[in-house]
Amino acid sequence: MLLKKILSYGKQEDQVLENVKKHLQLLHLAFESFYSGIRKDDSSTMREVIDLEREGDSVRREIISTIYAGAFLPYLRPDLCRFVEALDRVFDSLEDTALNYPDVVLPEQIREECVRVASMNTNMCEMLAISFDAMVSGEDLREKALAIRIYEKKIDDIKFNILKEMRTTPVENFWQGRTLAEFVSDLTTISDMLEDASDYLQIINISMR
Amino acid sequence: MKVDEFMTTRIESIEADRSVYDAIEKMVDRRIRSLLVVFSGKDKDHGVITARDVVFKVLSKKSDPKTVKVASIASKPIVCIDRTMTIHDAASLMVKSVIARVFVCDEGKIVGVLSLLDVMTASLILRARGNYVA
Questions:
Q1: Which of A3, A35, A69, B7 is 20–30 Å from B110 (CA)?
Q2: Using CB atoms and an 8 Å cut-off, which of residues 87-116 of chain A contact chain B?
Q3: Interface ipTM
Q4: What separation in angstroms does the CA of A158 have from each of A92, A151, A188, B122?
């Protein structure tokens, strides 16, 4: 375990790594709930995202305070914190999207594409967790980072299709249009945030060499 | 990994009686390398025209793309696969049939297209996940 070998490894470091893993697991569960909710058009499943976000928040606070209590060498701490905060931003954005969902009137012509984006976001999150495990084990992250970039590019392409379709979709009033636009924007921006988190992992990995 | 995860759902098409010049224009505008060719009459009657067809069958022979009809150079019939087919099986079919893209169909309706680039990117993801099958 490279990270464990390089750093003055102790209980605090172990605790941080375990909590980051837990944070990633919670995030993945939240993505799965969101995907299941949008696929089945079930708002109650979406509410699980809110509970998971709260749990994730408390794990994040624990990670940050353990890092600043002295876990890891000082030069690594800011990048580790940035990574955890990037995950938190993903969580927040996913929560906003889930909260918005019950008010969204999702037109049939874009529903399938939105479900595909939700599925890809879930896979991206899984890949991020795989990347983190690989980094802890001292493996090369190149292939994992590329996989994340591929997903991001694919979602970008789908976003373009959705937006094109949306321009010709009639809406009943201003708020219906605005809610739909915000939902699609949030859903398709999450992948950028996951990519940012992957970039922070790469930075941490490089700085350990 | 199933093909519907990696297929492209936006399919650009052109009518068979249009000129090859129209097809070139559309491919250049949309930055794509192929178009689905729609023949009038039967619903399932589709073909495909690629940049390779345009170059090999028209431009290299110094024919005028404005006078050549899409129908005369389109490949027919198209190869359709089920959306639940695995990427690996789709790749094998592409190798066997020596084609660069297959169309993904669901209950007789074309819902996407899977190109060599899609297969390549899907394989990279499988590899990164650790369950890559060469």
A1: A35
A2: 112-113, 116
A3: 0.76
A4: 22, 11, 9, 16
Through-space distance between the first and last CA atoms of chain A, rounded to whole angstroms: 13
Sequence-ordered list of residues with C-beta below 8 angstroms from that of B47, at least 6 positions apart, any chain: B16, B36, B37, B39, B71, B74, B75, B76, B77, B78
Quick check: A161 and B9 CB within 8 A? yes
Q: In chain B, whose CA is at the least distance from the CA of A110?
A: B9
- Asked if A147 and B125 come within 8 Å (Cβ–Cβ), the reply is yes
- Claim: this prediction has a pTM higher than 0.80: yes
Q: Which residues pair with B82 in a beta bridge?
A: B105
In a domain, B118, yes or no: yes
Residues from chain B contacting residue A112 (CB–CB below 8 Å): 9
Distance from CA of B99 to the nearest CA of A (A): 22
- pLDDT above 60 (res B133): no
* pLDDT tens digit sequence for A36-75: 999 999 988 889 999 999 999 999 999 999 998 988 888 8
* Chain A CA closest to residue B125: A147
Q: Structurally, how many domains does chain B consist of?
A: 1
What's the CATH number of domain A8-207, 1.20.58.220, 3.20.20.450, 3.30.70.100, 1.10.150.110? 1.20.58.220
- CA angle B67/B73/B78 to nearest 5° reads 145
Range of the domain at B105: 3-129
CB contact, 8 Å: A202 with chain B? Answer: no
